Amino acid sequence: MRRKIITVSVMVGILIGIVGTFGSAPAKVYIDIDAPGFRKFPVAVPDFIAVSAKDPAAADEARKALLSDLFMAGIFDVVSPARYTPNPDPGTDISRTNYAVWKKVGADAVIKTTYEISGNNIAVEIRLVDVANERLVFGRKYKAGKNDFSRVIHKFADDLMYEYTGEKGIFQTMITFVTDLHGKKEIYIMDLDGNNKVRLTSNRVIDLSPSWSPDATKIVYCSFKQRAPKIFMMNIKTHSDRLVAGFEGINIGADFSPAGGGIAFTSSKDYYPNLYTISEGGTGLKRLTNGPDIDVSPSFSPDGSMIAFTSDRGGSPQIYVMNPAGGAAKRITYSGGYNTSPDWSPRGDKIAYVGMTGGMFHIYVVNKDGTGTTRLTSGTYDNEDPSWSPDGRFVVFSSTRSGRSQLYWMRADGTDQTRIPATGGNDTSPDWSGRVIF
User: Fold this and answer.
1) Rounded Cα–Cα distance for residues 263 and 220 (Å)
2) Cys-Cys with 400: which of 16, 209, 312, 381 at CB 3.0–4.6 Å?
3) Is pTM beyond 0.90 here?
4) Which H/E stretch holds residue 138?
């Protein structure tokens, strides 16, 4: 849900290099994929071709990653592979294209890929070809560790989004979440398609509510590892953490300021759960709310000028907004008697939250001024923990629709709700990182 473009190559221990760029058309005319009546381009994705040593399993997983990214991008409709042989263009030279074959199967474009493994490294070439106009749109050559094939694909998908929309994609972003796979609730991170899961905590207690820093090098989370709930900050690269807020009572629900250097959280240090801010170093504590009400789940606006939070000051949990510098809070939800877990869109215009309807929890969005309340999920199961993608076009959330809690993403209008491959436990509390450059 963070908004900043960030570099985390050292964090994940890989380096994806663009070693060649080629294409056509110096003038750019970007498409608006959110415009009414936008028509997706039919695209064919033939099998990946091994230039030398083959790794069919890795190539198949990478191709699946590409198909997943293309679906999520919303630009293309993938032509069914059943309509053509695995590789109608024979050989390893993907600069050659039999346009007649691809036109016959109804493809307006084709994405062709070769890979070459050398030791622990992989070189990948990907070309996007305009079939209708018989021209190369653009191509890229990438080098990376051979275990990072799918991340090369995500890098290409980001380049693809930029080529068409003028805006970087989100396919190199990550999601942090909580799972009880190991019996207790622990924190993981993963790529947005569920690959490359990494366990961050092994505290064997209850760890909750992870939240990314603006530069995605750290998370803050709540842990009971010192018996009472306290706020800790972890370095993603080293997995080392330190205490930030360990006041008497409860300390929960932390969120980084998008400007960096500050954290908002809830503490009952003065008996009632109120909102506070504190520096990342654990100094400069400032109280934001005051009274006998329960104020929890702070979420900063993208410019850091406002905080959305949940409060029961009106008699039931509702969403409010306030200036972190102080002042009165404004209530923005009035539909339903139980609304919680706000998350501010990186576009700044909307807030996602959880509301109870018919005894079940569902995801809603509301304009920041309280107008335009819209329900995004339905069904006789719980949908909770919304978190926006850094471009504001998607929301990740947890749902019990499969029997246990698993993570899903959906478009900002609630369509295309898609399950992210699970850990095997109950997966909850997702938080979406900002854009990442490997």
Assistant:
1) 9
2) 381
3) yes
4) strand 135-145
Written as six digits, the tokens of 281 are: 């170093």
SS3 call for 26: coil
- DSSP letters for 405-434: -EEEEEETTS-S-EEPPP-SS-EEEEEE--
| Helix ranges (DSSP H) in 127-200 | 149-165
Residue where the block lists tokens 């991340």: 151
Question: Which residue, 213, 271, 220, 264, is CA-closest to 242?
Answer: 220
Q: Say if residue 189's pLDDT is above 90.
A: yes
Task: Please provide the DSSP assignment of 197-263 as one string.
Answer: -EE----SS-EEEEEE-TTSSEEEEEEEEESEEEEEEEETTT--EEEEE--SS-EEEEEE-TTSSEE
CA atoms within 13 A on the CB side of 223: 23
Is the distance from CB of 339 to CB of 310 less than 8 angstroms? yes
Tokens 């094939």 belong to 149
Q: Are 373 and 333 in contact (CB under 8 A)?
A: yes
Q: Residue 19 is encoded by which pair of tokens?
A: 């070693």
- Can you list the pairs that 76-83 forms with residues at least 24 positions away whose Cβ atoms lie under 8 Å? 76/40, 76/41, 76/42, 76/43, 76/109, 77/40, 77/41, 77/42, 77/43, 78/42, 78/43, 78/44, 78/45, 79/42, 79/43, 79/44, 79/45, 79/105, 79/106, 79/107, 81/44, 81/45, 81/46
Q: Does domain 6-165 have CATH number 3.40.50.10070?
A: yes
Q: What per-residue confidence (pLDDT) applies to 23?
A: 64
Digit-coded pLDDT (tens) for 96-138: 999 999 999 999 999 999 999 999 999 999 999 999 999 999 8
**What are the angstrom distances between the C-alpha of 431 and each of 10, 131, 221, 364, 438?**
21, 39, 11, 17, 19
CB 174 within 8 A of CB 191: yes
CATH of domain 174-437: 2.120.10.30
Beta bridge partners of 125: 114, 141
- Residue 342 carries which side chain, given as an amino acid letter? P
Supply the pLDDT for residue 438.
45
Instruction: Output DSSP code: residue 106.
Output: T
pLDDT in tens, 219-274: 999 999 999 999 999 999 999 999 999 999 999 999 999 987 799 999 999 999 99
